[in-house]
């Protein structure tokens, strides 16, 4: 089919390296007439009519009312990534536009990052790397001992598909697994990974050596972990966040880490991202921070794009939509 006859997809400016952009663009071009933001802005009148869908890469760009008003034929926003807290779902829905996400593609790589952060923080990997590259200092490993993940208790807050993948991995480390979730998992699912349900989050916080946050960011989970919750954790415990920064009260976390209310934190997400260079979290040696890389793998980028494309095509073809997200 000629490019002009394919449904138009607007790809927002996603930054990144040219190679990634080219790969994504090649995938999208198989199904769509791809219109970049630059092309759209240069020829708004003609392009705006063609655009039936917008492809959003992860949570970088947001979609505002002005953009929606300029796209009269828009039917769907295909978010590549699972979290949609950067999108105003109610406002988008008021334009009759659907939103979709990619829960399947993100689950394994994000669970891997959760495990990587837990292990790295437990064994003080970042400090170890820094010591290894500063050969003029004398260091003895006994001066900076880590803690073991094996047989420790892991508390998972948010047992969706990523949480469940974390539990599967943690089982291989003989971890005792607790979880807290809005809805309890089926008995067979709990048994398959040996996970115990904690109806009260407080119980999980008190018992866990590692607490991992894997909830969506919603008004209910905003600042879910604050001073009170941190004070319930063991002084030897580590907090890992692979959900969204705003799930934690960051000021309370800084205080808890400075005064050793908890042992350490390992964060793939913060607010803002990135943190300003003078942020107190960057000055603490009991924190490791990665720059929101839960899905930053060659495979995940590709799979997320394919999942997003399948969602968009389903909307445009009037077929059942694999992963639609609804405003609350
Ligand atoms: O943060 C990543 C995602 O929401 O998929």
UniProtKB/TrEMBL annotation:
The lineage of its organism: Eukaryota, Metazoa, Chordata, Craniata, Vertebrata. Residues 23-325 form the D-isomer specific 2-hydroxyacid dehydrogenase catalytic domain. Keywords: Oxidoreductase. GO terms for cellular component: cytosol. Residues 115-294 form the D-isomer specific 2-hydroxyacid dehydrogenase NAD-binding domain. Belongs to the D-isomer specific 2-hydroxyacid dehydrogenase family. GO terms for molecular function: glyoxylate reductase (NADPH) activity; hydroxypyruvate reductase [NAD(P)H] activity; NAD binding. This is Glyoxylate reductase/hydroxypyruvate reductase. InterPro entries: D-isomer_2-hydroxyacid_DH, D-isomer_2_OHA_DH_cat_dom, D-isomer_DH_CS1, D-isomer_DH_NAD-bd, NAD(P)-bd_dom_sf. Pfam families: 2-Hacid_dh, 2-Hacid_dh_C.
């Amino acid at each position: 089919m000629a490019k002009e006859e394919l449904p138009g997809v607007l790809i927002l400016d996603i930054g990144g390296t040219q190679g990634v952009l080219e790969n994504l663009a090649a995938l999208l071009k198989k199904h769509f007439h791809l219109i970049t933001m630059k092309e759209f802005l240069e020829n708004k009148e003609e392009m705006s009519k063609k655009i039936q869908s917008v492809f959003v890469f992860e949570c970088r760009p947001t979609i505002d009312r002005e953009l929606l008003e300029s796209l009269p034929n828009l039917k769907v926003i295909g978010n590549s990534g699972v979290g949609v807290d950067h999108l105003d779902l109610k406002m988008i829905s008021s334009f009759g536009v659907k939103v979709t996400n990619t829960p399947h593609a993100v689950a394994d790589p994000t669970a891997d990052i959760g495990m990587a952060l837990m292990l790295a923080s437990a064994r003080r990997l970042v400090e170890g790397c820094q010591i290894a590259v500063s050969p003029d200092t004398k260091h003895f490993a006994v001066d900076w001992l880590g803690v073991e993940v094996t047989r420790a208790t892991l508390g998972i807050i948010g047992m969706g598909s990523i949480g469940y993948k974390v539990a599967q991995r943690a089982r291989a480390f003989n971890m005792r697994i607790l979880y807290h979730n809005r809805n309890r998992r089926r008995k067979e699912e709990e048994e398959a990974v040996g996970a115990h349900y904690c109806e009260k989050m407080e119980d999980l916080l008190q018992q866990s050596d590692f607490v991992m946050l894997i909830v969506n960011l919603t008004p209910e989970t905003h600042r879910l972990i604050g001073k009170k919750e941190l004070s319930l954790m063991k002084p030897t415990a580590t907090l890992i966040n692979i959900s969204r920064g705003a799930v934690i009260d960051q000021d309370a976390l800084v205080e808890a880490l400075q005064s050793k209310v908890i042992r350490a934190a390992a964060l793939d997400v913060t607010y803002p991202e990135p943190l300003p260079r003078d942020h107190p979290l960057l000055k603490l040696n009991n924190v490791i921070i990665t720059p929101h890389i839960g899905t930053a793998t060659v495979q995940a980028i590709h799979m997320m794009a394919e999942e997003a494309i399948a969602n968009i095509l389903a909307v445009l073809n009037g077929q059942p939509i694999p992963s639609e997200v609804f405003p609350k």
